[in-house]
Write a structure and sequence with these properties.
179 residues; alpha/beta; 18% strand; 7-stranded parallel sheet; 7 strands
Amino acid sequence: MNICVFLSAADLDDRYTVPAREFAELLGRGGHTLVWGGSESGLMKVVADGVQESGGRLVGVSVDFLAAKARTNADEMVIAKDLAERKALLLEKADAIVIMVGGTGTLDEATEILELKKHGKHTKPVVLLNTAGFYDGLHQQFQRMEDEGFLPVPLTELVFFAKDGVGALAYLEESAGHL
């Protein structure tokens, strides 16, 4: 399965890097392909290293202004002209999406993917990997949106909140059987 992972390129502490590495190793050992932003920095590097060292493939989609930070030994690397094209290519190349910890760029990617799913522009499973409770507040906000009628489809049809990589991958593999 081609699994797109949206995540930070920042250098983070062990509470984020250790679970990210464990998830990456699960992907690689499972024979999955990581589709990611292509960066050789921070958490993106941690995940790419884990997938590659565990036998998985790497498909990167960088953007022209970040091309100098792109991983040179990915199995495939595409350079998009801008962030909008990058997001479209990442979604196009993926069978499923996992959103890991990140900043405003990751949040932008997450909300766009969910908005497209809400409108039926894709039906790919989406998982928010809630490492160390990072997305607790966002989960609460999404729940409020659903409770108050802002979501036209049930939250559970848009996104699955996973506490760890094992749960995230199990959900994706189960969902893949239903696609």
